[in-house]
Structures are given as C-alpha cells and as structure tokens.
Amino acid sequence: MTARFPHNHRKRLASCGSMRDCCRKTSVVRCREVVGRVRGASPRVFGTSGSPVDPPSAAVSVGAAWAHAPYPVIVADRDGALVELNDAAQVLWTDAARGDRLDDTVPTWLADAHGRFADGTREGTGLASGAVADRFFEAHPTPADDGDVVWWLVDDTDRRLAEAALTGARQRTALLADVSSQLLSTLNVTRCMEATARMATDHLAEAALLVAPPQGRRHQLTYAYRGGPVTRVTAPVDVHAVPGLAEALQGFPPVPARWINPADLPGWVQPADFAGPVGSVIVTPLPGHGVPAGALILLRSSGEQAFSGDEELFARLFAARAGAALSAARLYTEQASITATLMRELLPPRLESVHGVEYAGAYRPARDNERIGGDFYDVHPGTDPGEETLVVLGDVAGKGLDAAVLTGKIRNTLHALLPLATDHERTLTLLNSALLSSHHTRFATLVLASVRRRGSKVELRLTSAGHLAPLIVRGDGSVEETATRGSLIGALPKVTSATANVTLRPGETCLLYTDGVTEARGGPLGDELFGDDRLKRVLAECAGMPAEAVVERIQMLAAQWVGSGSHDDVATVAISAPRAADLTVAGGQGRAGGTTYRRNG
Amino acid sequence: MTDLPPPALRLTVTHGALELTVDVAGDLDLDTHDHLVETVTEQLARHPEARGVRLDFTELSWIDSVGLSALLMVHRRTRAAGRALYLDNRSALLERLLRQTGTLGHLTARPGRGEGATGANAT
Amino acid sequence: MSAPPAVGTDALVDELWQAVADGDEYTAVDVVRRARADGADEETLLLDVIAAVQDRVGSEWAADRLTVAQEHAATAISERVITALVHDRPPAGGPDRAPKGRVTVSCVDGEWHALPARLVAEVLRLRGWRVDFLGAQTPTPHLVSHLHSTSSEAVLLSGSLPTHLPTAHAAITACQAVGVPVMAGGRAFGPDGRYARALGADRWAPDARAAAAQLEELSFPHRSVPRQVMDDLPHLTDQEYTFVAQSRSRLVRQALTGLENRFPALRAYGDAQRERTAEDLAHIVDFLATALYVDDSALFTTFLCWTADVLEARRVPAHPVATALAVLGESLRDFPRALGLLADGTAALADRPLRPAPGPDTEA
C-alpha cells in the first residue's frame, strides 16, 4: 500500500495538526484494545498549522487518509527528527511530538533502520522489524520529499504468536513422539523407568524421581538429575510425606503444582546431586493399563523459573506416555516370567559325565523364537556305578508348544516308570497305555538306552520305539547302525520292540538323534536332504572325539546345511566311553583330497 | 491371483462299486494332515455302501510324523466304521517310515475278528 | 594387548598345546591348575595361554597338521580347561570389589565358535562384572528377549566368521533399538574393527582386555536408536546383496556347471567330491554376498587368498578358485559392484606369492 500512497494529497496533510491531543491519554498497557479504538475513531480533519511542535518541514508529502489509517505511520526527516505521526502511531508513542528525536522516541531498531534508509546504506527495501511495547511490527519505509521517510508499521504480533505457538506445539509433539519411541522400544521395566526419569530431566525438570508402585512396603525409586547419572534404590519410604504422592500412586488425579509447598518435601525426594532448595514441584501419576504404573515427581530448584500451567499440562502428557510404556513392560515381564517358569520343566537338561560314562546333549528347536519343541532327551543316572543309567531321546509328532507339552508328559511318565526301566519292553508298554487316547493319534518315537560301564568299556542296551536306530562310531572310523526295531508309542493298541546290545570301547560313541538331522533340507545346492549317508560320513570323522564335540559337530553341520531355511527340531545325545588318558586322538581321518573350510574361520 | 501355487496336498476321490479310492498327491505333513482325515471321514459317512478305502500314494512327495499320525487316525476311523483300509503304491519313503515306526503291519493288516474297533477301545 | 604376558607363558603354551593336540584332557587341566597354584594370574592363563593355544589350533588346522576331529577335540578340551579354572576360582572376586554392572556376552546367530566369547565372559567376570553368557548360536530373538527380561547395560557380540556380518547387523540394530549399546569383537569384524563401525556398533574391541577396558568407558544408560539397515549401509539399495544372497543355490549350481564345462575331469568325481566343490563355491558366494553387504573388497580378497593357502596346504591346486570367479561373473553381468569384487578377487589371487605347485594338474 505504500506504492499507492496518494501524492496529490500531501498538501492537505501538510496542514495536519497534532493527533496526540485526542489520543495521548490512552495507555498502551492493553495495546490491542487501544488499536481497536483508534480504528473505530471517526474520521476527522487534523488541526491547523501553528502548533508549537510544528516542524519547519511540515510540508510532508503524505495525504490526509493516512492520519486515520489503521496502521501506525510516522514520518521522519533525514536528520532523524520526527516530522509527523498518525493516530495509530500516537497510540504507540503517547508522548511523542513533532520535532522529537527518533532516537529518543522509537525503539532503537526503528531509529537505526531510519538512519540507514536516510543515508542510503540500507539493504534491499530497508524493511525493518521489531518490538514496540509488547507488540511486534514490520516497518516499511517509503521515501518522501526532501529526504523525509515515511515509515508504515504493520502489526505482525498475531502471526508471530501463531508461529511461536506452532513451533512450540511441533516441538512438544516431536518430543512426545520421541518419548514414546524411546519408552516403547524397551520391554524391560527397570530400563523403562530409567528412560522416563532421564527424559524428564532432559525436557521438563532439573531433577526427577520415579516412584514405582510398592512391593510390600518398599518402593523402587529411580532418580535422575540433569546432566548426571540415573540411580536406583529400593527403600521403605513414607509416600504420605510428599503431598499428592500417595494419591498419585493410587491413580487419583494429580494435585495442582501450586498447592504443593516445596518446603514440605522430605529429603529423600531430591537426588544426591540436586543443589536445592526446591523451588517448584510437580507430582503426577503414571497412568497404566487399569492400574497405576507409579508416580513421577519433577523438581526445579528455587533458582529456576517455576513450572507454568502449560508445563504442568505437558508433564501430564509425558506421564501418560511413560505410564503406558511402563505398564506394557510390566505386563511383558509378568508374562515372560510365567512362561519361563512353565518352560523350565520342558527345557532339555544339561548333561555331564555319570558313573564313568560321558554324556552330551544338544537341542535346537524348530522355531528360533522358541526354546522348546517336540524333541526331548533325559539322562537318569543309576543309583550307583553298578546300576544302569537310563537315557531316553525321543520325538513327538508336531512342533512348538503343543508338542512340548506332550514331551513333558512322556518325560514325567518315564521318570515314574524308572524302577521298571531295566525291562525296556515293559516300560514301553506301560508308557504306550498311558499315552493312548481315543481322541487323537498323536504319537511319539523314542529310544531307550540303558548304560553301564564295565572296566574301560561301556555296555549299552538299546531299544527303539519306532525311532531312528542309534549309530555307533567305532575307533577305526566305521559307523554302525544298531539292530533295534520297535513300534511307536501312543497310537497303537499294542507295542512290540527288539533290544540290541552294544559294547563301546574307549573313545567310541553311540549317537542318539532325531530326524531333524537327517531331514534337514538345504546344502550348497539348496534343496537336498542331509540324509543318512551324509550323517554316517560325518560321524566317521568324529571317531575319537569327546561326546560334546561329536554332538556339537553334528548340530553345527545340520544347522549349516539348513542355513537360513526352516528346519525341524534337532536333538542329539552322544554316549561315549572315555578315552584312556594315554591314547592319542585317532588321526588320519582327514578328508582325502577334498577341502572344507574350518568351521567359523 | 490366477497364479496361486498348487495346494501342498491334493486329494482326488473316485468311487468304485464297493470301494472309495483317494489319490494322495503332494505333501502330507503338519500343514495338510487335517485335510486327509476330514476328507476320508466325510466320504465314509457319505458312502455307507463302500466296504473299503484305498489310499493311493503314487504321487505322494513327502510325509512326516504328523502325516503318519493322520494315516493312523484314518485307519482308526475306517476300522471303527467296519471298513477296510488299503495303502496302495507306497513310495520308498512311506514304506521306510512305516517300517521304522513299526506301523506297517498295523496299517496293512486285514481286518480280523475283534479288531474292528481298535481305536475306540483305547482310553 | 595391554599387559605384557607373564614370564614363562611361552613354556606354558607349549605344554598346554602338547596336551591339547594329544587330546589329553587330564594333562591339559593339570598344566593350567599347576600354573595357577604356582601363582600365575588367571587372566594371563585365559588370554595368554589358553587363547594362544586355541590360535595355534586354528593355524595348525589351516596348515593341514590337525584333522577336523583333532581340532574339535582340542576345542572341547580348551573348554574343559576353562571350566576347571573357573571352578577353582574363589567366590565373587573378594570383598573389596563392588560389583560393576551387568552385561551380556553372546555369539552372533549362526556362529559356532564360542571360545573367544567365553574367554571375554570369564575375563569380565574376573574384573567384577556380572556376566550373562548366552553362548554359541544364539538366535537374535533370544538375545533380544534376554535383554528385555534382564537389565544388561551392554551387549558384547562375538563373531568369528565374516559371513555372519548381516546377521550381526540385525542383532546390533535390535539391541540398540531396545536401548542397549553393543560392543562388537572377533575376527568377523575385521582386523581394525571396520565392519563393527560399518554396522553401527557402539564400540569395537580387538581382544578381551580391550573389551574390558572399553566397557569401563561406555556411558550408560543408552538412548534407543531404532533404524533400518539402509541407514548404516545406503549402498544396499542397489539390491546386489539381496540378489546374490537370495540366488545362492542357483549361483552355486550355475558355477558348478560352468566349472565342469571347463574342467571335464570334475564330472568323473564322486558325489562326495562334487559336493565339496559345491561347498567351496557356496563359501565363495557367501563371502561375495557379505563383501557386497559391507561394500568392502578386502573382505572378499582376504578370504580368497586364505582359501587358496588352505587348498595348497592340502595339495589341492588353487587356480580353480580364479576360474570359479570367472564363471560366477557370467551369472552376475548386471551387477557392477559384484563384478568389481570378482575382478579384485582375481587380481588378488594373481598377486599372491607363488608357492611350490603341488601335484600335476593337466587342465588347460
């Protein structure tokens, strides 16, 4: 609009009187209202010349309309003296009069901008902006006659406020998103509490204390101090000593910050590094999923600005997110601990040497996110070295938890049948009738091995119940399949079985395994079965190895064969006659002419 | 949409004068075993005149322990209904699995007296 | 190594090596127990004796002076020696030592070489850390759920075979997303730890002592940093890694056919021999894929030269490796990064110092 300024009106303007008479009494305290009033003022013709403040250069080149313009307008000469100002401008500078020095009247930013415009050192249009009282203006200069400059002031306050509000809202949204992403990434309660306390000090307060719900009479307390470490203690604190804390822990609405007298806070609320004294405090519940997840106490020292209403509101938003994340973590922890307890019974046992015989077992469940599956093994040591140790390895049709539950039943039943276990066929018959059901034909296959050391040798009685026959690795590298056969357990009305007797000499091994080994599909060409022949070839290279090494090697080769493909449960148990100490490892089993890469570099 | 892969297990039922024949093609395993049991059970109910069920394994490509469990259930149900079950054209893989698990005799035995309700007697 | 080995370590290494190579568990345990009784420091025994012997097991195998069985037996015995040493340890390090934090030591999923991780775990325990040792072959979901259910302050991730680097990357990002920093270690991460950095690990340690020292410096707690693999390795957008990794079997088949066309004698080999050749090719493809993943040709060339050395140590001619690269190149014409790696590999093989050529090879 500066461009459309009507030059032909300048003469009339020149006769303008002072407008301060009508406006000067008005306060600028509530600027918005005043401006409104000025806008609403009826048009009038300004007074005549001859006023005491009439500058000599009163012949200002502006028209009459400007006097009532809703925007403040001032005119200044090249020397920085005020030539004219309209109604709206007079509202801003109530004491200003023609002839005043700009330097003494308007803020520095405007006076300086004028100086630059007047002496030609301005950049671009010479547009300037800055605050006047508590409003914010953009000042647009236009040149007038005699080097005068007309400054048109556009009130920019609302836009600025809106922008500031938007930026603030964006920052808070980004912060809340960050808070959620930080907190939701962990399902660990302790880590979640630490992250909450730390982020509270990063963004909200000088110090934060997260009070967890009580365990008995003790509370876990997580302290954070800006720039310091997060610390945890569990202590029997009196939560009633902190105004609003007991209520927050019970999920009642938070007590407004201004109701809490910081002087009333007990010492344990402050982290060790907090310089204090506390100037302001917020106590807010951490709302969980139905039950409170704890409470958060935010502290600022008396040296800092007290929490504002907005900040208190924001603290509650923060607490809501933290509470949701903490509840999820607590729920996960409870579930995980229940699962772990139930699963403990189903996990395969750790095996070790018993009565002079080496045992080693390894198990890899079909699904990587499970630890249990349909394969199982157990070693039940004989009551003394003269008694047989019973080894069982088996496979339940199916995978995952369903299968694992059935393995648990079989293992428990076999444990109960131990006193009868010297008679394999009878044990299998009893187990079969315990498992038989009219509802399904889910079955198990298994191998029973009764093991006893005799001198330096180990004697085995092996009975397969529909399972893969165990393999014997001899000292010379030959691999034998044991001659035991029998029917599976749990689906047929009657079971049959034939037991094989085997003697292991020192360094020899009997391997019990499930079909997860031989049915592993993969290999370098992608879709081949690992198969019996390959297993026997690999076992031949295991002659003389300790039981653990045999089991590890078979598991490793089967896993590498499958690569990233899917696989069945894989269970292996090796029973070895210990090598005599003076024997050297059976050498010469290296692969003639071929190459392989050393396992794992 | 038109290029969906063929189902892992394909069952084709043909009705003879006195027998039902089910061609079992593809994989009989954890993912598909229900399909066989349900199909045979349904056919038994629908065809009371059939004296026997023939499962033809010419095109069986894979069977695992859950598949064997399904065969045992099919056997139990056909016997309970007083019909005979025949396992025809057994592949080497199937034959081996049946022998290893000691189920070959059970699944292929001719129905004799007192054997009719084998499974139902179990508890 | 931050501390100089104790005097007499060399003699101990020789003694233990002899027992381990003989598969003599009793003597091996006895050697270490005696040294301990004579005042040898446990950390020295773990790192300067047992680890040194284990290094020797590796190099002796590569030189074809140990069989697979002996190597496995040796490793099993080293494990038992460590177990015996730990068993003899006085409980809980002494009253003056306040427990440090809790950390998790794990191998990368698919990594069977657990001994280096075990040594790190034992050294950290000696230095007062509470250590959860998850062992070899830990599926990444198990590692992450372990972190959820414990308050581990850091994960020490061990990898020996570079082909596990993509899996290691998944584990590193998963741990960091949970808010737990990761220190990587082991040969897989490169001699200077460059792959640890490439995969965004918070720290890298060249050995157990350095790991213990660095752990003291790691700041806890950590910010959770959820991110995608592309954030660390933007070159993966070219899909070359994805293609090679997914076409592994097909590439191996094509290369096998290509090799048989060039060396017709291969066809006369038995199935077992053919399978070994296929395994060798699969290793080359795996290393090629990994080199594409981390975009580093040294990873590929180092592997090829090592392979050639191992072959020659077994009196098998190494030049078919170069031929295999040429054959693979024919299947990867549209993949400039892969072709670049194959060219680097060919050049590295050609630059290898000449060795006495074992046995005649009639193929032209």
TL;DR?
The complex is a heterotrimer of chains A (601), B (123) and C (364). Chain A has 601 residues and is an alpha+beta fold.
* Rg value of chain B: 14 Å
Instruction: Name the helix and strand elements of chain B from N-terminus to C-terminus, one letter apiece.
Output: EEHEEHEHHH
Number of discrete domains of chain A = 3
The CATH homologous superfamily of the largest domain in chain A? PPM-type phosphatase domain
CATH architectural designation of the largest domain in chain A: 4-Layer Sandwich
Sheet with the most strands, sense and barrel status of chain B? 5 strands, mixed
Number of DSSP E strands of chain B: 5
Mean pLDDT across all residues of chain B, rounded?
86
Task: Tell me the CATH architecture of chain B.
Answer: 2-Layer Sandwich
Helix content of chain B: 25-40%
Write up this protein.
The complex is a heterotrimer of chains A (601), B (123) and C (364). Chain A is an alpha+beta fold and 601 residues long. Chain A has 15 helices and 23 strands. Chain A has helices spanning 10-14, 20-23, 31-40, 87-92, 102-105, 108-118, 157-184, 189-203, 245-249, 309-344, 400-416, 424-435, 515-518, 531-540, 547-562; strands spanning 73-76, 82-85, 128-132, 135-143, 149-155, 207-211, 219-225, 231-235, 278-285, 295-301, 358-364, 375-380, 389-396, 444-454, 457-465, 471-473, 479-481, 485-486, 497-504, 509-513, 521-522, 528-529, 570-576. In chain A, a hairpin with a 2-residue loop joins strand 14 (444-454) and strand 15 (457-465). In chain A, helix 7 (157-184) runs antiparallel to helix 8 (189-203). The longest helix of chain A has 36 residues, at 309-344. The radius of gyration of chain A is 45 Å and the shape is elongated. The two termini of chain A are 79 Å apart. Chain B has 123 residues and is of the alpha/beta class. Chain B has a single domain (9-110), classed as Transcription Regulator spoIIAA (2-Layer Sandwich). In chain B, 39% of the residues lie in helices and 25% in strands. Chain B has helices spanning 33-46, 65-80, 92-100, 104-108, 118-121, and strands at 9-15, 19-28, 52-56, 60-63, 84-88. In chain B, strand 1 and strand 2 form a beta hairpin. In chain B, helix 1 packs parallel to helix 2 (65-80). Chain C has 364 residues and is α/β, with parallel strands linked by helices. Chain C has helices at residues 9-21, 25-37, 42-62, 68-87, 115-126, 140-149, 165-178, 194-198, 208-217, 229-232, 240-246, 248-262, 271-294, 297-313, 319-331, 336-351; strands at residues 102-107, 130-135, 154-158, 182-185, 203-205. Chain C is globular. Mean pLDDT of chain C is 87; it is low at 1-6 and 357-364. Chain C has a five-stranded parallel beta sheet with strand order 2-1-3-4-5, sandwiched between helices. The chains are: A alpha+beta (601), B alpha/beta (123), C alpha/beta (364). Chains in contact: A-B, A-C. The interface between A and C is large, with 63 and 73 residues.
